[in-house]
Amino acid sequence: MARIPCRGCRKLVDAGTKTCPYCNTDLKGQPIGKWSKVAILGVVVFMFVIAVTSDNDPPAKETTKAPPVVYDESKWHPVPPDSKVSNSPWDGSVYEIERYLEHTLKDPDSYEGIEWSQVVTKLIDGQRRYAVRHKYRAKNSFGGYVVEQVYFVMDGAGTVLSAVKL
Description:
Elements: E1 3-5, E2 12-14, H1 34-53, E3 77-78, H2 95-104, E4 112-116, E5 120-124, E6 127-139, E7 145-154, E8 160-165
Antiparallel strand pairs: 1-2, 3-5, 4-6, 5-6, 6-7, 7-8
C-alpha cells in the first residue's frame, strides 16, 4: 500500500489510515501533495497550449465521389421508337426510373417528378446503354423536401446501372 507523510509529525503512514498512529492527527482531509499540484498544473497548461495552437477548422474530408458524368449530346443518340427504355408520350417520364426511385427513396409517397430529359442511347463496350437526366422533389430523412437532379444510366432491360447526382 502507498505511504504518505503525516502533516503533523511528517512520519510516513499508510494512505488508507484515518489518523496518524504516532501523533493522532486527523488524516481525512489530507491536502494534495506539492508534486501532485505541479502535475495537475502541468496538465492544465499543456491542454491550454494545445487548444490555443490547434487549428479550429475540422480536417477536410476526402470525398470518394464518382467522377461526374458529362452529358454530351454529340456522343449519345436518340432512342428508336420500339425501344423498351423510352419517355412516356403522356408526361415524359421513364417508367424504369420511377420504379427505381420507388424502391430507393426514404419516403416514396413524397416523390414528385419535376423535369425529364429525352432518353438517349449509346453503345458502350458493345452493349447498348440508355441515359436520362431527371429532376425531382422528395422528402429526406428529416422530413424536409429536397430537390435532386440525377443522371441515370440503364441497360437494355431498363435496370439502373448508375445514378449520379448532378
